């Protein structure tokens, strides 16, 4: 490599994995002075990679020996210092290299373009932005008093009239949270600031985009003034929308968790809708929480962040209790629509003849039938897809296990397959038991597919529709199915948690959760929190329409079929009492020293054998001692083997977040070294603030 006479040396964040030991930004030579945040291409080994010039000084006398920057994207304004701070913080907090994180969150197409190609893009974008669209002034409802209070409080934060504490906007489905987001966004836009709105699901972005566009089309007539950012966009769309945000053209950005890293030089407000949703946590690579980073980003910029939920995460709720967050409550549904009455259906009280062995009990079928006769829509909720979770041979006790995982393969009847939901291994259903040849192999248990079939059999003539990950695999299917529900072409909707999220089903008057008990006895301490949120959300799908209540229709209702009707979770659910539920759960968490009263990280290791994974974790545990940090013995992952890889994990716990962070800072570099010495082939990762343990 030729050495050049360079005037400047620069630090560049490049996509070198943290595990390579190339942790921070690397030093390069540059003929021109480069502002921090500039995008460049640099050599690394034999490759040439995208990089970001990083703030901070380089040893001046080094410049002569450094490899030069290959190309500079000088048509593009540098990334803002605040963006670099966010990445520095996130990389440090989640124990990744800053270059790896930058490359994961920048639009993938940037990596492939040359500076000239990017400039041609940019020109296209300018032409696009020149034509404005006409739109009528929107109709805005008069705010209810609690909404007005919430908006005033957030506005004060935008204009700087008050200091900004994160706002927890607490209100059930239909209480008017989205209207508060819209008004707060309007205030930020009027102040010349950009707005970022995060939603948990890609599927929810079109709906939200429509609502924001309807409201702001007149105020923001320029194309690309409102854009979305999520992983289902084409690479070209994603780059275009990202650039629009970076250039300040996009005033309002709606997106999923990756949008928390959007470059927004004039950001003035962040909204995190359904802030409790687990999908805000990235589950591989840099395992960041977009919700937590949103709070950090807002704090760093001294701007308001609004976290909205009917069932806040217990972390956020505890922050509100302690006063770190400001809780603003919307206590009623807009228009006085009632929440559905919750009926806890005691499975123990049913006679055997009522069909306790099937999810479709006689009383449930009778209720569905009478709703059907009155022309009302119902939702039957079961959080398990497929036909049955396992096939079983009554002769030899064979079960449809996955040869590559410690899990059963799920029976999918429609395409006659046995499919592993962990590794994807799929085979045709055998005609006879593969072990003993018995022809009488039978499904055990039920998933949504079987429920759909049983409902159609039990209620002839009913139009039954199933919505889950299987029924919506192809593009456009979910939209078409939701439309059928909205248009009243469906009598009974069967679905997984997918249907409980956000979708506004105005016609549904009856919701049944047929088999939710499993989560009560999970080893995951967050399972009850998730179940409560899911059931509240499922119930929120019913009876949003006060007019229909007034119109003398049967009351909207939610049934929960349970063997544990006295369980405090269900008792709180029956009264729609999140506050009580949260208090109970937090008391338990406090006495068990669980989050939010302690702070956790997981060290995960994957290898061909459990012994190799365990040996790595055992050695890791011996590398660093800290009297205030507890390192638990390694245990197998809940699904220990996936795709022939054994997964072990080890919990690290500290009373103070800072203590845990300090420990990880010292520990992780020694793990990189340990891995290097380790003979067995092995992958490892640290998960800070893990959601599932
Ligand atoms: P959430 O986001 O809490 O589910 P929304 O903001 O979507 O609640 O409000 C529920 C419904 O009530 C929506 O149709 C919305 O347009 C309407 N709405 C919200 N606020 C008001 C208001 N102040 N006056 C009249 N209708 C309202
Ligand atoms: Zn058999
Ligand atoms: Zn498998």
UniProtKB/TrEMBL annotation:
Cofactor binding summary note: Binds 2 zinc ions per subunit.
Keywords, ordered alphabetically: ATP-binding, DNA replication, DNA-binding, Helicase, Hydrolase, Isomerase, Metal-binding, Nucleotide-binding, Primosome, Zinc
InterPro entries per the UniProt record, alphabetical: DEAD/DEAH_box_helicase_dom, Helicase_ATP-bd, Helicase_C-like, P-loop_NTPase, PriA, PriA_3primeBD, PriA_3primeBD_sf, PriA_C
UniProt: Zn(2+) 1 binding residues: 393, 396, 433, 436
Residue ranges crossing the lipid bilayer per the database entry: none
Family designation: Belongs to the helicase family. PriA subfamily.
Name the UniProt record assigns to this protein: Replication restart protein PriA
Organism phylogeny: Bacteria, Pseudomonadati, Pseudomonadota, Betaproteobacteria, Burkholderiales
